[in-house]
Amino acid sequence: MVPLPAQGHLNQLLHLSRLVSSYNIPVYYVGTIAHIQQAKIRAHGFDPLNITNIHFHEFQTPSFETPLPNPNASNKFPNQLMPSFYATFHLREPVCALVRELLSKNLKKVVVINDNLMNWVVQDLPEMPNTECYSLNSTSAFFSYSFLWELKGKPVLPGTEYYEDIPSILDCFPTEFWEYLKIQEQFDGKIHCGELYNSSRVIESLYLDLMSKEKDGMKQWAIGPFNPLEPKETSKDSNKRHESLHWLDKQEQNSVIFVSFGTTTSLCDEEVKELAIGLEKSEQKFIWVLRDADKGDVFTSEVRKVQLPEGYEEKIKGRGIIVRDWAPQLEILAHNSTGGFMSHCGWNSCMESISFGVPIAAWPMHSDQPRNSQLVTKYLKLGLTVRPWTRRDELATSEMVENAVKTLMASPQGDEMRKRAADLSNAIKKSVTDGGVNRAEMDSFIAHITR
């Protein structure tokens, strides 16, 4: 497994490692020292150190810049991570050496699964004997197809009606990212035997089929959700159990909205203030994860502590809690007191929310998030929009937040979304059992790589 060193990507390939290792296949998960540590510490829903079939390989790279995130930047894209992405280029030779070492043990085959933003690192591997490479598309098929559709000049095709008013892809990423992507894309279609999606035919079969046609015969498997559908929760009596879960135990079913914008978003002081007032005015119960975005190395010491309005935490006591450390998102979303999720619509968060039947108040920030929010709100009809992407340069007001929270948590419209979300969650859980479509896809992929 060769992940991109950003939390959402590290997490996806770690969960995929768990799934593949359950077929009694040894898995080697590779990366820089800091990012392997990050992946292990933040794993949730299972303990990767308890799975003897997962082997971690931490490689040294030259030091790289770790600038602080800029909460006041005009674009929310996490530019502070770009030096850490380029640092992974130094993994090309160590990864080759590891594959050579594994091949020397007379293995039948070495299978490499790399994040599709890490093609540079694995470019030499297909030339090695008994080695096959597969690409992990870490975004939704809805997003991937929209990307190709836009490049083709936006033709009118089945499924594209959900792309009405979709933001231009050029507005979602900065120039620095396009330069990095160009380096990775030169290997597309040349080094891989197939493509994997952290998605499910239960969720977006239309777009998976459209992508299959576009890829002209390249094998693809939709084997998500990668996250556990029954996360291993810490015992209620354990002192390791997170405070938010104890608090949720005391709340009514579907009464709490979980507010979290992932690991790559930094809100400016004004945005924090408006969000705080909006949550308070909504009069709904909430858990708000208030952290700054990750740096390229999360273990470097300097971290901005985001300030709330004076006396705020005292004012909302009993109705809301603020979490400033790492929150157990899977367990929070799986808890029956959680009835809504205000989210940036990163693909991991979307998949986790959909898995547990929690509707979304979508507030996209950058990258694939604006299009994922379209998938959630327009195609799946499992959520609503907090602030339209077209108004991203405006401050999201407390009124916008208040209205979105009230609609999602305390209106017939929100109840309908919750019912649709619960129905889809049940279908996903059924799909991973024997005879289900997800199980069939996973079995098909394992049979293909072990043939």
Automatic annotation (TrEMBL):
Residue ranges occupied by any Glycosyltransferase N-terminal domain in the UniProt entry? 1-228
- What top-level branch of life does the organism fall under? Eukaryota
PROSITE patterns given for it? Answer: UDPGT (PS00375)
Q: For this UniProt record, give its keywords in alphabetical order, as a comma-separated list.
A: Glycosyltransferase, Transferase
The record's EC number reads 2.4.1.-
Record's CDD domains?
Answer: GT1_Gtf-like
Q: Does the keyword Transferase apply?
A: yes
Q: What class of enzyme is it?
A: transferase
GO function term, MF aspect, one: zeatin O-beta-D-xylosyltransferase activity
Q: Please give a single GO biological process term from the UniProt record.
A: cytokinin metabolic process
Question: What PANTHER family does the record point to?
Answer: GLYCOSYLTRANSFERASE
Family that this chain belongs to: Belongs to the UDP-glycosyltransferase family.
Q: What is this protein called?
A: Glycosyltransferase
The uppermost taxa in this organism's lineage are: Eukaryota, Viridiplantae, Streptophyta, Embryophyta, Tracheophyta
- Gene name linked to the record: LOC104242929
